[in-house]
TrEMBL record:
Presence of keyword Transmembrane: yes
Organism: Macaca mulatta (Rhesus macaque)
Transmembrane segments: 20-42
Upper classification of the organism: Eukaryota, Metazoa, Chordata, Craniata, Vertebrata
Keyword set, alphabetical order: Membrane, Transmembrane, Transmembrane helix
Gene name, Swiss-Prot/TrEMBL: CNTNAP3
Name of the protein described by the UniProt record: Contactin-associated protein-like 3
Length: 64
């Protein structure tokens, strides 16, 4: 998409600054979401691992 006429210098620069700020915000949000998803995935993986270990212990001891 085009952002305003190219004849005027300052508005284009301001638009560029706003665009870069928006892009920076979007990137920050995306990185934050990725970190959250990664943390959740690691949690789930660890819980599954613990459950498997607990199940093997439970089957040996036959406790709840």
């Amino acid at each position: 998409g085009g952002s305003g006429p190219a004849d005027e210098g300052e508005p284009l620069v301001n638009a560029h600054r706003r665009d870069s700020a928006v892009i920076g915000g979007v990137i920050a949000v995306v990185i934050f979401i990725l970190l959250c998803v990664t943390a959740i995935a690691i949690r789930i993986y660890q819980q599954r691992k613990l459950r498997k270990e607990n199940e093997s212990k439970v089957s040996k001891k036959e406790e709840c």
